[in-house]
Amino acid sequence: MATLAPELRHEVDAFDVTRPELYRDDAWHEPFRAIRAAGGIRWTEGSAFGDYWSVANYRYIVEVESLPDLYSSAAGIVVADFEEGDVRLPMFIAMDRPKHTGQRRTVAPAFAPGAMARTKEDIARRTGELLDTLPVGETFDWVDTVSIELTTQMLAILFDFPWADRRKLTFWSDWAGDIEAVRDPVRKAERLGHLYECAAAFTTLWNDRFGAEPTSDLISMMIHSDAMREMDSQAFLGNLILLIVGGNDTTRNAMSAYAYSLDRFEGERAKLERDPALTANAVQEIIRWQTPLSHMRRTATRDTLLDGHRIREGDKLALWYVSANRDEAVFENADAIHVDRPNARRHLSFGHGIHRCVGARLAELQLSILIDAMRERRLRVHVTGEPERVPACFVHGYRALPVTLERY
Ligand code: HEM
């Protein structure tokens, strides 16, 4: 389809839901509500990321993700296209079958229930230690002090990454996930530099562990996995970066959403504080409500019909999880948190189908440990000002969240 000239962009389509300000200002609810009300599938032309289909309701996202040969991941997983000169490391999230299957197998055991049970104690101890250092009654930034620190610690444990340098994982992940930076030549070059630095650091770790005895960290697991035969060093690095980015911004923003959302729904927080049996469901509900990644992208491999809409080969489709998780056809009173919502688990925040998040159990474990550790210490978060939100249509979260803690 024809692309509109840049000067005509934005005024044209009020329902271009890729606009960063919608997320910066928390103003995405209405355009998505309107798209869902009109059937849930909408074509947008001339956005800053080119032309794309919005798939905004629950059932069509499930349909698209259930047909991975028709709706491919190989052309990229975000609405932004790869640009000339950008780093493009092979990652299994951006591959189709059968390559995807083999490479996913190298890391999946690290997230199996047995592996989770082994890391649980370590994560619980470190979470407890961090909470015990927090000031009660004084304002601090929850994002940096709690969400980023806990997520970064978890990743450092997972990779057995040098502990003192662990904040570099956050730094690299932030750059890798910044799809707005790709459009600015200066920031794009800066981003490339940081990603090369990240690749170099992991190459060193890989070389150190290559000839060594197997250990339980992810790098060693990947080196010694059978499926590693299907991966060259580029793919190895790409998949490591995928794990850092995949586990970082996402889990971080689920933790920030715990603090932010429950302070808005105090009655629900009281229920959760009283009843430890609600933790597991509350974890799902918070992840539904926040939806830490707003979308994933697919590209049609041939002409097809989706609910009667003519999708052409090469068209890109943005699957808006952020909208599907507010779809009233599935979630009653979807804008509200209900820690005991019966179907909270059905959320699409982890995606659906063959690419469904491989790290979901780890993210759930981390959040549940945080909730339980807060309850055990009788600590409650109060938000003291508006959060600063990430101005982008991919990572859906918070840059800063001023809070105080109360002991109840
Ligand atoms: C895939 C979300 C935590 C690693 C995905 C996908 C989503 C997602 C939406 C794509 C699903 C699809 O295309 O159908 C989240 C959220 C998290 C989280 C919301 C936290 C609340 C993690 C963690 C890790 C991780 C902790 C690892 C440390 C991955 C990987 C993939 C993936 C490797 C690619 C899976 C594949 O293509 O087969 N995640 N994720 N994620 N995630 Fe997560």
Give a quick set of tags describing it.
single chain, about 400 residues, alpha+beta, Cytochrome p450, 5-stranded mixed β-sheet, 3-stranded antiparallel β-sheet, 14 helices, 12 strands, disordered N terminus, binds protoporphyrin IX containing FE, monooxygenase, iron ion binding, metal-binding, Cyt_P450
Proportion of beta-strand residues = 5-15%
Structural class: alpha+beta
Total count of domains? 1
Low-pLDDT runs of 5+ residues are 1-5
Top CATH class = Mainly Alpha
Describe this structure in words.
This protein starts with 19 loop residues before the first helix and ends with a strand. 43% of the residues are buried. It is an alpha+beta fold and 408 residues long. The strands form 4 sheets. A 5-stranded mixed β-sheet has the order 1-2-8-5-3. The protein has a single domain, classed as Cytochrome p450, CATH 1.10.630.10. A hairpin with an 8-residue loop joins β10 and β11 (398-400). α5 runs antiparallel to α6, α6 (142-159) packs antiparallel against α10 and α7 crosses α8 (185-210). The protein has 14 helices and 12 strands. It has helices spanning 20-24, 29-37, 58-65, 99-107, 113-131, 142-159, 167-176, 185-210, 218-224, 233-264, 266-274, 279-290, 321-324, 360-376, and strands spanning 41-47, 50-55, 71-72, 140-141, 295-300, 304-306, 309-311, 316-320, 379-383, 388-389, 398-400, 402-407. It binds protoporphyrin IX containing FE. Residues 65, 92-93, 104, 242-243, 246-247, 250-251, 254, 287, 292-293, 296, 349-353, 355-359, 362-363 line the site of protoporphyrin IX containing FE.
